[in-house]
Amino acid sequence: MHTSQKMRTPLNVDKVIPFIPEGDFYFTKGVEAFQKRKFDIAVKWMKKAVEASPEEPLFRCQLSIIYTEAGAYHMANQVLTEVLEAHGEEYVDCYYLIANNFAHLGLMNDALKSAQQYLDQAPEGEFRQEAEELLEFLDIEDEDEDWDGIDDELLIFQETAFYHLERQEWDHALPLLHEMMALFPDHVTAKHEYSFALFFSGEEAEAIALEEKWLEQEPQSLFCHTNLAVFYNRTGETDKAAAHIEALFNVYPLHSQQKLRVAVTLARTGYYPEAVQRFKALPKSYLQGHASYYKWYSIAAFHTGNPSKALTLWEEGCKRHPFLSKDEGPWIHNHQ
């Protein structure tokens, strides 16, 4: 550096120590924002803490808690799963936190398994009482022999309804789903599949009214947002559809079928590049039984300038699911 440049510098540069915040600084800022219930700001600070100290599981756990408080239960569980993968038994509390999030999402079987896993690994753990209360709330702490029978019956209903839904046989699906709702009122998926079939059978207003009512009861419901995005898109209410699509952009579910639901919704509503990114991240081996995977991935690929990929997917889909060949391929725009 030239002497003249040094003279114009008000400080002796050699003695200036740059301030580079470490993870603890970001963590503290995140906790402060969280305590003020400024969740968006808290998430930003906590993400910075994680980036600055990626090996510090405490920061990720706190990030998950912020997501939970903000109602982003899927995001919370994604973070907690990362902690368990990296640190395992050192952070068994994650199992309870995951169970709590599953319960909020209405995924009761998953909540049960995670809560029980926590109690098995930490019988005297910090969240023992909460985990026991959660099991009691789920009303399955003392399982009896009928539980497996109920699961089997539910599975038969699910598979039969799925068969008809995939084939767009709405008249066959509706009575089955209606019966499922009566027999298994806690099975969240059934009521949303019912409204979906109702909409495409011509009862559009009733289906929308149902989903809007359920959304008021559970504003973070993935099922409500995916269905309403499709419904409003189909009825030409694009502003309303866009609001629900926006809610999906930052949702990354843990379960493959829920991941598929988001990807298909994005494709159905014309968000093809975003849909392709979601489809690429899906574990194909788990979804080969879903015709919708091949159909909508093919359509999204075609509309993002990849006709060869679209054709390959379509041909594989038709081979695995011959009923798909009734449709005219991804190059036809009018799909349900």
Automatic annotation (TrEMBL):
The keyword Repeat applies. GO terms for molecular function: identical protein binding. InterPro entries: TPR-4, TPR-like_helical_dom_sf, TPR_rpt, Ycf3. It comes from Sediminibacillus halophilus. This is Tetratricopeptide repeat-containing protein. Keywords: Repeat, TPR repeat. TPR repeats lie at residues 23-56. It holds the Pfam family TPR_4.
